[in-house]
Prior knowledge:
The complex is a heterodimer.
Chain A: E1 4-7, E2 10-14, E3 19-25, E4 32-38, E5 45-50, E6 54-58, E7 61-66, E8 71-76, E9 85-92, E10 102-104, E11 108-113
Parallel strand pairs in A: 2-11
Antiparallel strand pairs in A: 1-3, 3-8, 4-5, 4-9, 6-7, 7-8, 9-10, 9-11
Chain B: E1 4-7, E2 10-13, E3 19-25, E4 31-38, E5 42-49, E6 56-57, E7 65-68, E8 73-78, E9 87-94, E10 102-103, E11 107-111
Amino acid sequence: xxxxxxxxxxxxxxxxxxxxxxxxxxxxxxxxxxxxxxxxxxxxxxxxxxxxxxxxxxxxxxxxxxxxxxxxxxxxxxxxxxxxxxxxxxxxxxxxxxxxxxxxxxxxxxxxxx
Amino acid sequence: xxxxxxxxxxxxxxxxxxxxxxxxxxxxxxxxxxxxxxxxxxxxxxxxxxxxxxxxxxxxxxxxxxxxxxxxxxxxxxxxxxxxxxxxxxxxxxxxxxxxxxxxxxxxxxxx
Lengths: 114, 112
């Protein structure tokens, strides 16, 4: 069964400094990797979705995927206090039935200090 | 933008109680999902559906039933609620495999 682990558990950064989050997964046949943001008491907002090795940028958010290392990261450029939230990594595999089942990590709590 | 709504937003019930959580999406997505989110576990898939009348079992289905009555509506049923089902429940929808899942705002359920 797929295992998704995130590190660090929590991260405090200063406004404007780069924030880097890590996610490792156990199944090398996984084919889609997503990062979501969850503000306190709110639903999930997808930030970036990546399918191929390399990087994918969406605004200030960049995901890096290295399948051989079973690793995907998220970098937040020029983080702002409004970026303070829990960041979730989610991994999906080719389904054996309909639907794109996602396996989630438990999240990294990010605090951006002004 | 896809709209997924959930009701109620908060619910308190007692052990053994009967609870129905509702989800509606208005973008004609085929797939709908129910997740629970607990500290230390992340989001876990309970049930999902790829169309009206269809139901697929997720990773943590025990104690839950679900029904997809229309393309828009997906319900999660707890017929004998237990304290272990105290959680934050999310509904999501997507247009198909590999497509973005759009999440509702969540329902916080407390079972006393």
